[in-house]
Amino acid sequence: MSNTSLDFREGIIRKRLDKINRTILVTSGKGGVGKSMVAATMAASMAKFDMKVGLLDADIYGPSSAFIFRVKDLPREDRHGLLPPVSNGVKVMSLDLFAAGKPFPISGKGARQIIKELLTITEWGDLDFLIVDTPPGTGDVLMTLIKILGDMSSSIVVTLPTVLSTSVVRRVIELLLSSQIPVLGVLENMSYMASSKTRPLQSSEGKSLAAEFGVKFLGELPIDYEASKTADAGDMQSLLKTEFAKALLTSSEKMKLFTT
Amino acid sequence: MHELALVEGIISHVIDFARERKGHVVSFNDAIGEFAQFDKRLIRELLVELVKGTELEKSKMTVEIEKAETKCLYCNSKWGVNELLEPLSNDQKEMIHFLPELLNSFTKCPNCGKSDFEIEKGRSVRIAEVELNV
C-alpha cells in the first residue's frame, strides 16, 4: 500500500503534444535580439505554405505574439480545453490574451506553474509545427520547457553580430546541448541593412559561434524598417513580403522546415 | 468547460500510476484549489461518470476544496481567497480560474499594496492522494 501525490498535468500535455509533429524552441538567452519577430514570421510563413502551425508565446515577462498577430479574442473553451485564436493561419496562445495588457509580476515558482498550465489547458489539435517563443535567459521558463517538451523539441538560437550577444547566447547553446535538445542552427539577426546592404558591424559572430559548437549557421537576417513597420501595424501579410521574411525563409529552408 | 479535459487527465494519470506499480487503486482524493473556482459538485459528477468502465470504477473517490493560501513576497502577509478575489470583476476571476498566477496582474496585497504574491496552497485541481494495494 502506498500514498503518493501526483501531477496529472504532464499526462494531459503529453497527449496534446502527441498530435504535434514538430516543436521548435526559438531561443537566445539574450533579450532584444528579435526572437519574437523570428518566431512570429516563421510561424506565419509556415501557415502560408499550408502547414498547420501553432505559436506559443512563452515569453511571459514580455509577451508580444498577440500584438504582432493582432489577436485580442480570448481562447474559446470547449470540452477538450482552450482553443487558441487563429490569425493569419496561425493558432496563437499567449498569456497576454488573459492578462489584457496588465503587468505580470511573477516569481520563478509561479512562472513554472504558468507554463505548465498553459500547455495543459491549450488544445492545439493536429499541428505540423508548434513554434515556441522563449524568454531571454536560462531561468525557470526555459528550464520548464526543456523538462516538458525536451524530448520532442529541437531549437533555433538567435544572436546578434556582436561579441556581447554571443557571450550570452553561448550559454544557452551549452544548456540546450547538455539537455539533449537538438540545435537546428544559429541565426544571426540585424547583420546588415535591408535597404543598403551595408553592415553596421563587420564581424559575423553568429557564424563563429555556430562553428564553435559544430552546429549549422542558418544565415543572416537584416535590419529591416519595413518589417518593423508592418509588425507595428499588425500587417502580417505585408511582413511576409519584406527582406526580413525572405531571408528567414531562406534560413528555414536550410533546416528543411518546409519539406515533409 | 475545460474541467472535463482536466478530469479525464486525472483519471488517466491515476490509472497509469497504478498500472506502472502493478497495483490496484483503493482510493484517490482530488483537491480543488479555491483559486481555480471549480464547482466541486461538477468535478465529482464528472469523476463518477468518467470512471465508469475503468479500473477505477470501484475505487473510493473523494473530492475536497483546498483552502487558498497566498504569501506576499514583499511584506510576508498571508491572504486567502476572500481578500484577494472578492474585489475583482467576474472577467478577472475567470482569467484566474484558468491561470491562477494572474492574481499578480489583477490584485494587490491589502497590506503593502504590492503585486508580488506566491500561491502556497489551493491554486488548482490536483491529485492529493492515491492509495494503492500492490
Mean pLDDT across all residues of chain A, rounded? 92
| Mean residue pLDDT of chain B | 93
Oligomer: heterodimer
Count of strand segments of chain B: 6
User: How do the helices and strands follow one another from N- to C-terminus of chain B?
Assistant: HEHEEEHHHEE
Q: Tell me what portion of residues of chain A adopts beta-strand conformation.
A: 15-25%
Structural class of chain B: alpha+beta
Q: Which percent band covers the strand fraction of chain B?
A: 25-35%
CATH-defined topology of chain A: Rossmann fold
Gyration radius over CA of chain A: 18 Å
Q: Roughly how much helix do the residues of chain A carry, as a percent range?
A: 40-55%
- Provide the spatial order of strands within the biggest beta sheet of chain B: 2-1-6
Main β-sheet description of chain A? 8 strands, mixed
Give the C-alpha Rg of chain B.
17 Å
Distance between the termini of chain B: 35 Å
Contiguous uncertain segments of 5+ residues of chain B: none
The number of distinct β-strands of chain A equals 11
Q: How would the global form of chain B be characterised?
A: elongated
Instruction: Tell me the name of the CATH homologous superfamily of chain A.
Output: P-loop containing nucleotide triphosphate hydrolases
Helix/strand class of chain A: alpha/beta
The CATH architecture term of chain A is: 3-Layer(aba) Sandwich
Concise structural overview:
The complex is a heterodimer of chains A (260) and B (134). By secondary structure, chain A is α/β, with parallel strands linked by helices. Chain A contains eleven helices and eleven strands.
